[in-house]
Amino acid sequence: MERNNHKWEFREGFLIGGCLLAAGLALQYILGPVDWRWLAAPVNKIVLALLTGLIAVIFLLRKKVQAFEWMMHSYAAVSSLACALALTLVMGLTTQKPSGGLEWLSQMIRFWPFVLVWTWVLIVDGLAALNHFLRMRASEIPFILNHLGVFVAIVAATLGSADMQQLQMQVHYGKPENRALSEYGEVVDPGLAIELHEFTAEYYPDNTPKLFASEITIHTRDDSHLRGTVLVNKPMKVDGWKIYQAGYDQAKGSKSPYSIFLLVKDPWLPAVYAGIYMMIAGALCLMLFMAPKPIRKEDEQ
Asked: Residue 3 domain-assigned?
């Protein structure tokens, strides 16, 4: 195969970024915002397999396809990251809303150009991780950990978001409740029931809430019963769920007849943490390898 002698550099990278932006805008217009529910298991696992397979194919064909070889270079890494950071900056400068409607920039996490550009970053980052790994030298360990950590954390956070559940449950005294409301307004059975025994509220002198907590019993499907106290930042954990204190009848204060709980389940969260820990370990290893060696007395002579 005859290869083009033209050398790909930053210009091609920003051209790819522009094409992804145009393609994303077209998809946004045709399909509407990205609906992450499409990626609920097992679809997200299939997408992950396809993504890693694509990275492997690009890596194997890097010597035959000029574009693939360019993707292993810093030109691709810098240009892809620059495009992604530009969109992320827009995200930081615009008010993000739960429902963006036609205001595409107000919901960047569902904005097709944002998703496509960050997918490009992941592919380039995955290639870098694979390239460093196959060199199999101790000096490559920090770079492997950094690139792999970024890949794992972002992939787990995005693909795993479809499997994350956030439910709200309102529980009245003496009435065990097993129905919760999803963020999409659907009634969901989380596989457990909550029974409210006591609600406590404390206030500052200006009548703003100081503390509010609920003493509850959680009944699970396997007929186990877990009793404890739930606070805003101190959840109870059972069957993969974290149960937080979320609200109450503020008009009645400490005499509230009910308590509102937030139920959160994120099966991909351990993978996100694993990616973050790898990045931290990579940074520490990089400092270790790059630390200046002490000068020996015989070297000074």
From this structure: no
Residue 285: partners with Cβ closer than 8 Å, 6 or more residues away: 141, 142, 145
Q: 291 is written with which tokens?
A: 């630390």
| Chain segment 258-295, per-residue pLDDT in tens | 999 999 999 999 999 999 999 999 999 888 776 555 55
Structural domain harbouring 140: 10-163+270-290
Amino acid at 286: L
- Domain-embedded: residue 23: yes
Pair 253, 213 in one domain: yes
CA–CA separation, 161 and 272 (whole Å): 11
- The residue ranges of DSSP E strands in the chain, in sequence order, are 165-172, 180-182, 187-188, 192-203, 209-220, 225-230, 236-238, 241-248, 258-265
pLDDT at 294: 57
**Taking the CB of residue 87, how many other CB atoms lie within 10 A of it?**
21
Q: Does 34 lie in the same domain as 20?
A: yes
Write out pLDDT tens, residues 247-260.
999 888 888 999 99
Same domain, 27 and 46: yes
Instruction: Please name the residues in contact with 273: beta carbons below 8 A apart, sequence gap of 6 or more.
Output: none
Q: How many domains are there within the chain?
A: 2
Q: Is the domain of 153 the same as that of 286?
A: yes
Residue 165, CA distances (Å) to 43, 55, 221, 228 in order? 16, 30, 18, 22
Residue-wise pLDDT tens digits, 137-192: 888 889 999 999 999 999 999 999 889 999 999 999 989 999 999 988 899 999 99
